[in-house]
């Protein structure tokens, strides 16, 4: 990674599938909010110059407090997100320092991503303009209609499960988000927003352990994976 990188960490979701009163990004993992684990990873990377943290409008003060408590000095902006993930990402891009020519977007609830994977994704982006972390799907995937009838079985060799970070040249990502907003297009990730402009987006192979904490059964799994990561780091 050679360029000046900024990171947008989105954490403005409600976490409805988790079903907890507390939004999932604030639930503890090894005694620390999930979101803090995520931010600490970026804070520790020399290549990342600044971080824009996007949270719910009611959580801005609370998160400013977390940034101070955990000494996350690279978080230069804590801003309110929108009703959809895409709106939150766009708010984060606008809040990043003008010096950041390259931007990676990461889900606050993917605390298990590794520095190695982040670097792999950013290096691919520097070569191609845009790159996303992904893993090949392990299951056979079926397309199914509303009645439960299987319609097709796409060739698994071309299917990848997409993760974050997703990394882009900033001008490309900004223009793609502006266009999506004008055209009222909503995608489930930033690659979709960029793909529709015709710009190439490439895959950087990641790890199956970079899970998005989504439902209650992800929590013990995340605890286990974090513990394993720590043990491996201590061995080195
Ligand atoms: N309006 C939104 C929606 C989502 N996110 C963030 O995008 C990431 C991925 O979203 P997801 O896991 O789907 O989170 P939620 O929307 O919180 O979950 P759910 O769909 O279960 O409500 C999360 O870090 C989430 O906080 C966001 O910043 N703004
Ligand atoms: C961006 C993402 O993490 C890629 O897997 C994902 O799309 C986030 O949100 P989702 O709404 O849970 O799919």
Notes on the structure:
It is a single chain. With 236 residues, this protein is an alpha/beta fold. The chain has one domain (5-235): Spore Coat Polysaccharide Biosynthesis Protein SpsA, Chain A. Helices cover 35% and strands 24% of the residues. It contains 7 helices and 11 strands. It has helices spanning 34-43, 60-69, 85-95, 115-128, 170-182, 190-195, 218-235, and strands at 5-11, 28-29, 32-33, 48-55, 75-80, 102-107, 130-136, 143-144, 150-152, 160-169, 202-205. It has a 7-stranded mixed beta sheet with strand order 5-4-1-6-10-7-11, sandwiched between helices. Strands 2-3 form a two-stranded antiparallel sheet. Strand 8 (143-144) and strand 9 (150-152) form a beta hairpin. Bound molecules: cytidine-5'-triphosphate and ligand LQXTBERG. Cytidine-5'-triphosphate binds next to strand 1 and helix 3. Cytidine-5'-triphosphate is lined by residues 10-17, 25, 54, 81-85, 88, 107-109, 212, 214. The record marks 156, 212 as: Positions MEP for the nucleophilic attack. The record marks 17, 24 as: Transition state stabilizer. Keywords: Isoprene biosynthesis, Nucleotidyltransferase, Transferase.
């Amino acid at each position: 990674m050679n360029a000046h990188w900024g990171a947008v960490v989105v954490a403005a979701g409600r976490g409805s599938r988790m079903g907890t009163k507390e939004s999932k990004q604030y639930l503890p993992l090894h005694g620390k909010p999930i979101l803090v684990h995520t931010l600490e990873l970026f804070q520790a990377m020399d290549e990342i110059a600044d971080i824009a943290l996007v949270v719910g409008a009611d959580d801005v003060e609370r998160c400013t407090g977390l940034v101070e408590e955990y000494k996350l000095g690279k978080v230069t902006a804590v801003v309110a997100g929108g009703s959809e993930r895409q709106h939150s990402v766009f708010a984060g891009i606008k809040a990043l320092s003008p010096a950041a020519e390259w931007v990676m977007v990461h889900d606050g609830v993917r605390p298990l991503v590794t520095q190695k994977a982040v670097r792999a994704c950013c290096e691919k982006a520097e070569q191609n303009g845009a790159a996303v972390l992904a893993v090949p799907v392990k299951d056979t995937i079926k397309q199914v209609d509303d009645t439960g009838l299987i319609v097709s079985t796409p060739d698994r060799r071309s299917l990848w499960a997409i993760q974050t970070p997703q990394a882009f040249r900033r001008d490309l990502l900004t223009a793609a988000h502006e266009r999506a907003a004008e055209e009222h297009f909503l995608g489930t990730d930033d690659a979709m927003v960029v793909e529709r402009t015709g710009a190439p987006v490439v895959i950087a192979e990641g790890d199956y352990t970079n899970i998005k904490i989504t439902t209650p059964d992800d929590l013990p799994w995340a605890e286990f994976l974090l513990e394993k990561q720590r043990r491996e780091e201590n061995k080195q």
